[in-house]
Amino acid sequence: MSTDNTPQEDTRMSLADLAKLKADAAAAPAPVAEAAPDAASADGVAEVAAAPAAPVVQVEAMPLRPQIIDKFGRAYATGRRKDAVARVWIKPGTGKIVVNGRDQSIYFARPTLRLVINQPFDVAERREQYDVIATVTGGGLSGQAGAVKHGIAQALTRYEPALRGTVKSAGFLTRDSRAVERKKYGKAKARRSFQFSKR
User: Fold this and answer.
1) For residues 77 and 132, is the Cβ–Cβ distance under 8 A?
2) Which residue among 133, 145, 157, 175 is least packed, with the fewest CB closer than 10 Å?
3) Alpha carbons within 13 A on the beta-carbon side of 46
4) What is the pLDDT of residue 60?
5) Whole-angstrom distance, CA of residue 145 vs CA of residue 115
């Protein structure tokens, strides 16, 4: 290790240096904007603006994602919920939703499940503007409805990228990761204990 005794330049600033910088800035003449020739007061003397306006900084909006559609004019997405997986295609239409070859009112007989499916359209204010064709496998009806909803939300943002912020803020683009908790040994279910017997 070599020891170099050459003095190095001190770049630290003291309070005196700071005061000197402030004094220099105050002594510098402020830029004066020239008055327009037609701007005159009642006395006929041209008014001079005190200081120029601050420059306006424009923030660029996030660039939109490209529209992703197939040769048939449909947007495709996959939706998942619990053990269900849904393949969803949407295209402009009259609001007809077909799940596994059957109408939504037949496949999802419970009104709450149909309400779940239509949530992305309601948030984006696109109800009855798109036709949906979905094939869904696995899980029960509740999981399948959630999977179709997730697929519709994803496909809607691919067809209309401008809706992504609205649908995302409602939380429909996020896959719901909640699932059934596994059973543990020594327990009847995930947390349920066997019935206790004192004797």
Assistant:
1) no
2) 175
3) 9
4) 57
5) 9
DSSP string, 95-154: --EEETTEEHHHHS-SHHHHHHHHHHHHHHT-TTSEEEEEEEESS-HHHHHHHHHHHHHH
pTM over 0.85: no
Query: Which stretch of DSSP H or E encloses residue 88?
Result: strand 84-92
Query: Distance between CA atoms of 78 and 61, rounded to whole angstroms?
Result: 28
C-alpha dihedral (43, 46, 48, 53), degrees to nearest 10: 110
The b-or-e profile of 53-88 (16+ CB within 10 A means b, else e) is eeeeeeeeeeeeeeeebeeeebbbbebbbbebbbbb
Q: What is the mean pLDDT of each run of 10 residues along the chain (199 residues)?
A: 63 70 74 51 50 59 80 95 96 95 96 95 93 96 96 95 92 94 96 94
Please state, in angstroms and rounded to a whole number, the distance separating the CA atoms of residues 86 and 97. 13
